[in-house]
Structure formats: structure tokens, C-alpha cells
């Protein structure tokens, strides 16, 4: 049984899009949602009010993530959103407190969220309405972000707070460390005959290997 009212007819296309999207890969799903072709959006991820989402190139959205863009949501390029992460841009708190939590309540509050470029948002993170996360920030898994996050910082906890700040020199040293280690692992894997087609091979690779 389907309702034939304004709200149902407005929501139906998004419901059908999500249903069809479950049978696609992450790149096909991004195209279906009208996202940049370099975007990868995994299964069960949901975008609320997709017309209000601005997202840059080369972003990744994990399984089960919910991106509420009803109040405006901007995600910069090369940013990853972890699995089952929740981003809120609206709140019905006051509507609940006053027993006015009906559809179309004028006590729904909306505030935009901005997530900068080059950010890593871990899994199971909650980002509250009105928050700005600066460029190149890292949010550790299971964190609740209730206030702005400075650029080039690592935050964690509930509520999330800054644990580390890093500059370009630190990132460059980490790039060198990881690339050197991955090169070593690939060379060892090739000797074993199991080199991966890309990235670094899995498994234990001790310095003595």
C-alpha cells in the first residue's frame, strides 16, 4: 500500500534510487547519485537531501554512512568518510521538548556542516550540526564532534578534543616512511610469487624477512 500525498511522492524517488543503488558497485552508485565520477560510495550509505550536498573529487564514503545534507553539507576533495559515520545538519531537539515533533514542524533547526579537503573521518563518528572541520584533519573512530576542528589536527573522544597537530614536514616524513616500507614489502612478495597488482601486500613482513 502506497500513499499518494505530497510527502510520499517527494520521498519516493530517493527511496527507489537507494534501492537500485544496492545492486551497483561504488563508482556506479556515485554516478547514480549525481556525485563526481571520482567518488566512491559504498553499500547502504545514505544521503539525505542530496541537492544540498557539495562534494569534491576523489572522496570515499563508507558502508552505512548517513550524510544529512538537509541543512547544507560541504565535503572537500580527497576526503574519506568512515563506515557507519553519521553527519547531522539538523536537530529536532526543541520539537521533541515541546511535543511538536510532527512532520513540517517549524521547530526543526538546521545548521550547515563543512568538512575540509584531505580529511580522514574514521568509522562510527558522529558529527553534529553546525560543525566545521578544517583541511587535512583526522577524526579518530568512535568520536563525537560537537565543535569546530582545527586544520591539520587529530581529534578523538566524546566530545572530541585535539590530541595532535601536524605540519607538512611531518606528513612528508610519513609519506616517505610508508612508501619505503611498501616498496620493501612488494619486493619480498615478488620473491614469493604473490605480489599484489597495487598497494602493499598483506601479511607479516618482519625486517628479517
Automatic annotation (TrEMBL):
Region entry Disordered: which residue ranges? 181-209
Q: Where is the composition biased (Basic and acidic residues)?
A: 181-194
Is Acyltransferase among the key words of this record?
yes
One example of the protein's molecular function in GO is: acyltransferase activity
Q: According to the lineage, what is the superkingdom?
A: Bacteria
* Keywords from the UniProt entry: Acyltransferase, Transferase
What the entry lists under Pfam families is as follows:
Hexapep (PF00132)
Q: Which InterPro entries match?
A: Hexapep, Hexapeptide_acetyltransf, Trimer_LpxA-like_sf
Entry keyword annotation includes Acyltransferase = yes
Q: Which Gene3D superfamilies match?
A: Hexapeptide repeat proteins
UniProt xrefs under SUPFAM superfamilies: Trimeric LpxA-like enzymes (SSF51161)
* Family per similarity comment: Belongs to the transferase hexapeptide repeat family.
What is the recorded name of this protein? Acyltransferase
User: What organism does the record attribute this protein to?
Assistant: Amycolatopsis minnesotensis
